[in-house]
């Protein structure tokens, strides 16, 4: 299904999306869109539906109703294997818990994403690690890396297949200030090179880096505002 | 450049080697299964050989006679039969010659034989005293000793007529008495050469008892070999012995096969449980891989390859321990070692790998049902 608005450079369009788990309405009639190259922060208190929304955008879950268009393609009618293909081809995921494979080195963790996408390329994977400042830690296992280093491996893995959309769930949630600054720098650098980024966070200081902030409350969009500080900075 | 296949293999190897404690748990299950499998199948192979030798204590299982009624065999017939039978199967071959004799006017049957061969073909003979070792010595059946009241060391005169009706008489020294509870108790035993000298009729044999192990080709086949090599000989199977042997061996072999099947089933349950635990422990990893875009078949292939490697490794280790297990059983039950059947190693590895892969199918199916979103949220 083609999105008439995709020609307006909108990579993601969410139209009246609801997600209901039994009696719980996790999302209710959520509508917004994201332009290509835009940096959006999704904020909200616990239970506001942030993670549910991220799972739907990241093709990890399907909406109960409504329409999701990713680069012009409707996701709501796709089968599980088609959603897997979209995740593989178009989305880079960054997790709060890093989720690295414990028995693989940093380099191999990046190569895992290549392996499931197309072909493994050790040189390219090493370059991706060098880009996040971990060239010398490539042969280390996750347990030998600090939290910040693990998160940077996670970012390198998310970027290795050049996704159209980078989805980060609380990317600095488990990091100290120094590592938080490092990770945000990397995201800034990616954004400067044209990456579309959606960051789900409950931290104002993280959301402040985004161009735009969408606030969810009780599964509904409470506000959708340009970030004045960021606009001024730009 | 590293290929995708090499990388997949590397992932599986690291998953096994860098998670050693988990590997050991799974490997122990597979190895125990392979050990018992190879051990029992080795015993299945060896039990007929071992028991066949044990059965030889019950006496001869093949009797050779002349094919015409009243006909007698010659020493040439005996040697021809010995040549016709495979040496590795032949435990012993004993000639017997029966002659009606008298002692103090009472009739008895004297039997000429070779006592060294008797010890091989009739190890169940209970001899009090000793077997005759010199010319002029005899062994009395228990009933004869009872009737004549003669004992070891005493002398006994045996009289008779040969086929030409010429009279003969000779004194013998008694070396002992034989008791079997059978017809042997009623005979007087002397060496075949003494019998020939006494009767002045050399080269006559009434029957030959053969004791053959029953491993490999059947006894009927061996009987045919003799029949074809010595045309006027009639080989007869001692059915009460051969049938008992066959029945016991068949039942025992089936019992061991049955136990093997039960062990294989238990191994499969054990491996399934272990693999299920492995999958449950790695739900997050499976969820992550699916979140990264892994197709179900790729994740399934990884787990099945892991199962396959576990099966191969467990099969190899189990083959070694299986041989040790079989040897220990063989020593403790039969008092003899067992020759390793090396062709069982690839079979054990193959069966072990197959069992592990089959046992992994259900856990892998469950792994495919893992929802990446739920798992990554920690639910």
Silhouette of chain B:
rod-shaped
Determine the most extensive contact between two protein chains.
A-B, 32 and 30 residues
| Shape-level CATH architecture of chain A | 3-Layer(aba) Sandwich
The oligomerization state is heterodimer
What would you report as the Rg of chain B, rounded to the nearest angstrom? 34 Å
Low-confidence stretches of chain B: none
Note the gap between the termini of chain B: 39 Å
Strand content of chain B: 15-25%
Biggest sheet of chain B, open or closed, and with what strands and sense? 10 strands, mixed
Number of helices of chain B: 12
User: How many domain modules of chain A?
Assistant: 1
Question: What is the spatial order of strands in the main beta sheet of chain A?
Answer: 6-7-8-3-9-10
| Average pLDDT level of chain A | 88
Q: Would you give an account of this structure?
A:
- The complex is a heterodimer of chains A (234) and B (379).
- Chain A has a single domain (6-233), classed as P-loop containing nucleotide triphosphate hydrolases (Rossmann fold, 3-Layer(aba) Sandwich).
- Chain A is built from eight helices and ten strands.
- Chain A is globular and about 45 Å long.
- Chain A has 234 residues and is α/β, with parallel strands linked by helices.
- By secondary structure, chain B is an alpha+beta fold.
- In chain B, strands 1, 2, 3, 4, 5, 6, 7, 8, 9 and 10 form a ten-stranded mixed beta sheet that branches.
- Chain B has helices at 4-17, 20-55, 75-84, 115-121, 142-148, 192-199, 219-229, 239-281, 283-291, 296-334, 344-368, 372-376, and strands spanning 62-66, 90-103, 106-113, 126-129, 137-141, 155-161, 167-179, 187-191, 207-212, 233-237.
- The two termini of chain B are 39 Å apart.
- Helix content of chain B is 56%, strand content 19%.
- Chain A binds chain B through residues 51, 55, 58, 60-61, 81, 84-85, 87-89, 93, 95, 97, 99, 101-104, 108, 111-113, 115-117, 119-122, 141, 157, and chain B through 1-4, 7-8, 10-11, 14-15, 18-19, 284-285, 288-296, 298, 371-373, 376-378.
């Amino acid at each position: 299904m083609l999105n008439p608005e995709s020609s307006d450079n909108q990579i993601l369009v969410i139209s009246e999306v609801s997600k209901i788990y039994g009696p719980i309405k996790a999302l209710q009639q959520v509508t917004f869109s994201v332009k290509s190259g835009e940096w959006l922060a999704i904020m909200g208190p616990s239970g506001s539906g942030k993670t549910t929304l991220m799972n739907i955008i990241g093709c990890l879950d399907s909406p109960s109703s409504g329409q999701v268009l990713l680069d012009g393609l409707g996701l709501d009618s796709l089968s599980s294997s088609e959603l897997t293909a979209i995740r593989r081809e178009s989305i880079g995921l960054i997790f709060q818990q890093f989720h690295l494979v414990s028995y693989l080195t940093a380099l191999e963790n990046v190569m895992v994403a290549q392996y499931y996408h197309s072909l493994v390329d050790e040189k390219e994977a090493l370059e991706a690690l060098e880009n996040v400042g971990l060239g010398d830690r490539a042969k280390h296992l996750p347990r030998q890396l600090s939290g910040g280093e693990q998160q940077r491996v996670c970012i390198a893995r998310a970027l290795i297949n050049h996704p159209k959309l980078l989805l980060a769930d609380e990317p600095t949630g488990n990091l100290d200030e120094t590592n938080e600054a490092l990770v945000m720098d990397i995201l800034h650098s990616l954004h400067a090179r044209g990456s579309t980024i959606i960051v789900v966070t409950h931290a104002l200081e993280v959301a402040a880096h985004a161009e735009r902030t969408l606030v969810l409350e009780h599964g509904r969009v409470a506000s959708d505002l340009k970030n004045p500080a960021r606009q001024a900075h730009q | 450049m590293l290929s995708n296949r090499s990388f997949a293999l590397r992932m599986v190897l690291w998953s096994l080697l860098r998670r050693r404690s988990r590997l050991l748990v799974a490997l122990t299950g597979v190895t125990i299964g392979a050990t018992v499998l190879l051990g029992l199948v080795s015993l299945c192979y060896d039990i007929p050989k071992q028991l066949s030798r044990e059965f030889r204590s019950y006496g001869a299982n093949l009797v050779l006679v002349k094919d015409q009624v009243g006909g007698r065999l010659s020493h040439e017939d005996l040697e021809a039969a010995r040549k016709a039978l495979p040496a590795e199967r032949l435990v012993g071959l004993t000639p017997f010659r029966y002659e009606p004799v008298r002692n103090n006017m009472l009739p008895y049957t004297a039997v000429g034989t070779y006592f060294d061969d008797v010890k091989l073909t009739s190890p169940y003979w209970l001899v009090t005293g000793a077997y005759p070792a010199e010319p002029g010595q005899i062994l009395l059946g228990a009933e004869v000793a009872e009737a004549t009241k003669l004992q070891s060391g005493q002398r006994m005169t045996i009289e008779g007529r040969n086929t030409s009706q010429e009279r003969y008489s000779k004194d013998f020294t008694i070396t002992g008495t034989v008791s079997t509870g059978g017809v042997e108790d009623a005979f007087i035993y002397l060496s075949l050469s003494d019998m020939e000298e006494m009767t002045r009729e050399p080269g006559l044999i009434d029957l030959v008892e053969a004791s053959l192990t029953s491993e490999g080709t059947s006894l009927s086949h061996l009987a045919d070999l003799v029949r074809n090599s010595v045309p006027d000989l009639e080989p007869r199977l001692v059915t009460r012995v051969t049938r008992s042997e066959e029945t016991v061996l068949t039942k025992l072999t089936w019992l061991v096969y049955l136990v093997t099947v039960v062990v294989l089933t238990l191994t499969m349950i054990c491996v399934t449980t272990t693999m299920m635990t492995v999958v449950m422990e790695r739900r997050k990893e499976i969820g992550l891989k699916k979140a990264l875009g892994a197709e179900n078949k790729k994740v399934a292939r990884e787990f099945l390859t892991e199962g396959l490697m576990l099966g191969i490794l467990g099969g190899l280790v189990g083959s070694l321990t299986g041989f040790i297990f079989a040897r220990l059983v063989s020593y403790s039950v039969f008092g003899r070692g067992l020759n390793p059947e090396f062709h069982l190693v690839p079979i054990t590895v193959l069966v072990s790998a197959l069992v592990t892969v089959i046992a992994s199918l259900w856990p892998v199916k469950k792994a495919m049902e893992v929802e990446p979103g739920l798992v990554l949220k920690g639910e």
